[in-house]
Amino acid sequence: MPRAARFSDSQILDTAAAIIAVGGPTAATIGEIGHRLGAPSGSIYHRFPSRNALLGRLWMQKAASFQDRFVEALENDNAERAGLKAALSMPTSVRLDPIGAKILLLHRRQDFLSDEWSEAMRGEAERLGGQVADALASITKRLFGRASAEDRRAVAFALLDTPMAAVRRHVMASEPPPPSVDDLLRSTYDAVIGPRLEKRRG
After folding, report:
1. What is the C-alpha to C-alpha distance for residues 89 and 66, in angstroms, rounded to an integer?
2. For the whole model, what pTM was predicted?
3. What is the mean pLDDT of residues 125-150?
């Protein structure tokens, strides 16, 4: 009967994430991950065929978590409330996963990408790439009855660009975004989306 693995995929990925949060992607070598875990490099390669595959899985795991929370917020039946919840999902995600926030907001996506990905990993990357674009187009149409380029830019600014900029300073300082960030995001959302809604209703 084969022995149970000492370390799960999640433990390996969590260890790599903790290393990257402090030293960046280049610090997450297989040797360093193994050292932190107390595991031989071979046991890590048994779970992940390469370092690039490990980093790719980690990036997609974190991106999926943040993006799924964003998209879930947009499922609210009230479009105006859904947009606001989506904007506030960014500080919420940062508070829930500060290490994931560092990976996604302080490093380039390209640092985690590789030509060595499996077909399944490529498929997940494509899903993530289209997920936010589709969600933004959908909420724009729900809010304004159309999805013009100008409306899409306004929605992306209020729901994505401003929230990411608002939390970045706190992510860099390794601190959770304070409640005042949420208040400022509400004000920004009202200022950007409110007049356009009034124009549509008028």
Report:
1. 8
2. 0.88
3. 90
